[in-house]
Amino acid sequence: MDFTHMSSLAQQGYGLLIALGIKVVEAIALWIVGRWLIGFSINMIGKAMTRQKIDPTLIRYINNTVAAILNIVLVVAILGFFGVETTSFAALLAAAGVAIGMAWSGLLGNFAAGVFIIILQPFKVGDFILAGGVMGTVEEVGLFVTSINTLENFSTNPFRRVDLQAQLSHSVDPHQAIAILKAGLAKIPNVMTDPAPSVEILTFTLAGPVLAVRPFCNNKDYWQVYFATNALIKDAFGQAGFAVPEQHYMVRTAAVGATAPAHSA
């Protein structure tokens, strides 16, 4: 009696194992076919967007998003094929999606802004722009981050620009002063040749033209180049005999009924 009962249980177990094996094979086949269909769909979507000349970065992110959604649908379908109740599972995914969306609201806002920047292209890589109070050259436009090289990122760039000014007198030829400074900057230790030092007329004051003196150097040499450039400005202008910059004013006085000459100070 016991033997017969055990034999019956064994047969039932074999039947369940065979049925489970068939289910597993069918699930694997469903997974393979589903993955092929997902890949085919993503490929078609990518080609369609490429024909529309959509930015490759946006195409990549859209493809990844669609692929993630379709893979979730495929997994839910396979679970349903095995008889797993997927209604509660789908509700859990929806709740998780809402929670993640609320937690990432700012990130999603930045994502949307990145999408609009890529589609509308108000600027592109290589443009020199002022955005959010930051001025520099655009190096990368992404969905979440736009990289701008301001030449002042002291950690990212291997070099740093020294920004100094040199006040000239009205009597000094600015082009002569520029030539003197450029020659002197080339002799200062640790001043880089690429990028080359820049000396240009920056602005004008009552005393005369103001030169922008901008050598480049490695981060570790910044203060040495800074002080050496200041010393160059003073010493080179003194040796050239340039006049000391002075502010000049024109004062006009006139008596009632008469015109007085103008005096300068």
Description:
Strand 6 (198-205) and strand 7 form a beta hairpin. The termini are far apart. The protein has a three-stranded antiparallel sheet, covered by helices on one side. The protein has a three-stranded antiparallel sheet with strand order 5-7-6, with helices on one face. It has six helices and ten strands; from the N terminus they run ααααβββββαβββαββ. Helices cover 52% and strands 18% of the residues. The protein has 265 residues and is of the alpha+beta class. The longest helix is centred in the N-terminal third of the chain and has 50 residues, at 2-51. Helix 1 (2-51) runs antiparallel to helix 2 and helix 5 (174-185) crosses helix 6 (222-239).
Give the DSSP E fraction (strand runs of 2 or more residues). Answer: 15-25%
Low-confidence stretches: none
Class from helix and strand fractions: alpha+beta
The run of helices and strands is HHHHEEEEEHEEEHEE
Main sheet overview: 3 strands, antiparallel
| Form type | elongated
- Overall pLDDT metric: 79
| Count of beta strands | 10
Strand order of the largest sheet: 1-2-3
Query: Number of DSSP helices?
Result: 6
**Helical content, roughly?**
40-55%
Keywords:
265 residues; alpha+beta; 3-stranded antiparallel β-sheet; 6 helices; 10 strands; elongated
What is the secondary structure topology, with strand pairs?
Blueprint: H1 2-51, H2 56-81, H3 87-103, H4 105-120, E1 128-131, E2 134-141, E3 146-149, E4 159-161, E5 164-167, H5 174-185, E6 198-205, E7 208-214, E8 216-218, H6 222-239, E9 250-252, E10 262-264
Antiparallel strand pairs: 1-2, 2-3, 4-8, 5-7, 6-7, 9-10
